[in-house]
## 1
Amino acid sequence: MIECLTQRIELNCIIPAVRIEMISILEKSGLSDAEISRRLGITKSAVSQYKHHKRGKHIHFSDKIEAEIRKSAKKLIEKKSASADAEISRIIKMLKQSRGICKICHECKK
């Protein structure tokens, strides 16, 4: 039996996938790449890499998690969140509680 290393899944799959979704939402709201990078706490080049599919992998999240990502992005747009990291941590916690992280682990291995 191969044991899932949750932290590795978070770092390599979940965080990049959430960022991809957030970047898309923030971009649709009219924010520039420079502003998106500030709000997410990542470099402008990282934003570009996510947008051009050179970084991260799209993950199919449940409808509930997708709604939470949209909610977090809205908080970032409205500057009502302390940080993107705090929002991503909240989403990861929800994934762990719902065991959704296991589904993502299997999806990332493909």
Note: Residues 39 and 50 are 15 Å apart (CA to CA).
## 2
Amino acid sequence: MNAREELQHKFDRIGKKPMCAIIHRERYDDSDNIVALLKKDHTDQEFVEFMNRLDFEYYAGYGSQELFGTVWFEDGTWLDRNEYDGSEWWVYLSTPQIPVDLLK
């Protein structure tokens, strides 16, 4: 799977551009480890450079997790990298509603 294409697809599906992000690739043998940072108040060019840094193929199936990170959005939502038994994916999260029983 291509990390840049996967993340761009996720941005397109949720219809939001990131406020800031940190994504890193960690390989079991320390080869091709990558850190991609997108700072708050980034320029369009910095966003392009961030996405280009993620233009690599990785194995997202079962085995060792390779891609880690968090992407923050202006509205308080975020993307978080999850994995189970080495299979990995992005999860879109938002603060849950407070249950009525907890309100005064």
Note: Helices lie at 3-14, 44-53.
## 3
Amino acid sequence: MMKHQAAPLAINPLILSLAAAALVASAEAGEVAEWKFDDPPGTSLKSSANSVSGGGAWSANFDTTVTDGSGKLISKKPSGGIWNTYYRLPDNAPDKLWVVVELTGWNLNGAKVKEAVRAGFCATDTDDKPMVVAQAVLERKPDGSVSLRGDALGDGSTTVTGDSSSLQQQQTSPLTIVVGLDQDAGTYSLTTRGTDGTNKVLGTGKTSPGRAAKYVRFSIAGDLTDPEEQISIDRIAVTDTDPLAP
């Protein structure tokens, strides 16, 4: 008796293409760039390894800002001006992005004030008046207090006032700062996470419709020349998935 063989199963090419696209999207989701500063001691910012393969490097170094050999970037700065460095976003970067800065702590107890750290998104990579899209600003104010706020510049943009109640001139407890950007909605957010793992949403604001994020900016301003003054950074990352999601 002749046995009937089952007909080959027809596979829809559309299903295959959709499945392949899903796998590619899954593989690409996550960190766009990441610096863990696990480099040898004395490694400059521009030479620090990006753990994302082919992810690129920062555009410039900061003098006296180098890794300490134990996974931290120690930032110092002589007086005068603002130092900027930029990471160029990939051309195919999504419209929703987050910049994460994990601070080990800081000491801003020097004789001079107005020290500041800025991290966020820019439309240009110029030293003179960069076109900021949205950024976090951690600064020591003229009265000596330390504050964290969100800035978005350009027509139609708004600021995030933030909260300085828990920030000290000398901070030894780690603090994670996250700037989220949604270019489709024209909004940004500023959130922190402390050592207890609790997220604190400081607020959301509007970005300028005329500014598109092409770069991540990291900046230091003011005078950090006093012997004990420094800003200690454990990690900087750019991601296309919410780093604070449960």
Note: Confidence is low (pLDDT under 50) at residues 1-28.
